[in-house]
């Protein structure tokens, strides 16, 4: 009970400080009346595929806060090597063993915002995205901008990407292979597109197995 009281008082103090800071670049608010279940909002950093997009995160405060970190995940879908494209789980050291009691919800969200600008593909949460990031940066940037536009109200609409996706939905699997491989579309972009439209892993594997070696 004592630790829960410490956590609750700390959260109330931090939220009050955020409300009085007019220059605060992030938002944190309580989910209904539960002060231990919060929502955070960050804006994609400039000069990144996420620039100007608005991302919402779920923040669950444990009774042991601030001595142990909150549990945080993205609610807004995002294409990033260190964030699961399926679940929103984040791979970041301060959310694990590098957390310190002196840290705050504000510094935590600012660190996550910095992660958007500086991905760490060698320590990924999403291996598919990390491989694309390392092997085909252009395809990664297109996919990340497209997801930011569709899911997070990002300003950068990817017309070419939208056109290709519409073609996928209108064509059969064999036609996808014929039309997309000559365009040098990376195979991992197939995965991101299929995931976006909810194609099952079995459907994805059938496509991949039917692609000849190149």
TrEMBL record:
Organism, as annotated: Mesocestoides corti (Flatworm)
Keywords: ATP-binding, Membrane, Nucleotide-binding, Transferase, Transmembrane, Transmembrane helix, Ubl conjugation pathway
Pfam families in UniProt: UQ_con (PF00179)
Membrane-spanning intervals of the chain: 176-199
Active-site annotation: 91
Coiled coil: none
CDD domains per the UniProt record, alphabetical: UBCc_UBE2K
Protein family membership: Belongs to the ubiquitin-conjugating enzyme family.
Protein name per Swiss-Prot or TrEMBL: UBC core domain-containing protein
Domain UBC core: 6-153
Domain of life where this protein originates: Eukaryota
Cross-referenced Gene3D superfamilies: Ubiquitin Conjugating Enzyme (3.10.110.10)
GO MF annotation terms: ATP binding; transferase activity
């Amino acid at each position: 009970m004592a630790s829960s009281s410490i956590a609750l008082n700390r959260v109330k103090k931090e939220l009050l400080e955020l409300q009085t800071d007019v220059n605060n670049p992030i938002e944190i608010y309580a989910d209904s009346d539960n002060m231990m279940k919060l929502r955070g909002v960050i804006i994609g950093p400039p000069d990144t595929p996420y620039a100007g997009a608005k991302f919402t995160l779920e923040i669950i405060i444990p009774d042991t806060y601030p001595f142990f970190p909150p549990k945080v995940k993205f609610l807004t879908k995002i294409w990033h090597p260190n964030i699961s494209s399926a679940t929103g789980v984040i791979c970041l050291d301060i959310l694990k063993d590098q957390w310190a009691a002196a840290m705050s919800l504000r510094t935590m969200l600012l660190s996550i915002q910095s992660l958007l600008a500086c991905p760490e593909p060698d320590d990924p949460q999403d291996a598919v995205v990390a491989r694309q990031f390392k092997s085909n940066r252009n395809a990664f940037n297109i996919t990340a901008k497209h997801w930011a536009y569709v899911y997070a109200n990002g300003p950068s609409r990817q017309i070419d990407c939208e056109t290709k996706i519409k073609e996928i939905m209108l064509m059969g699997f064999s036609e996808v292979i014929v039309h997309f491989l000559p365009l040098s579309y990376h195979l991992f972009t197939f995965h991101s597109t299929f995931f976006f439209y909810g194609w099952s892993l079995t459907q994805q594997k059938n496509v991949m197995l039917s692609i000849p070696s190149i």
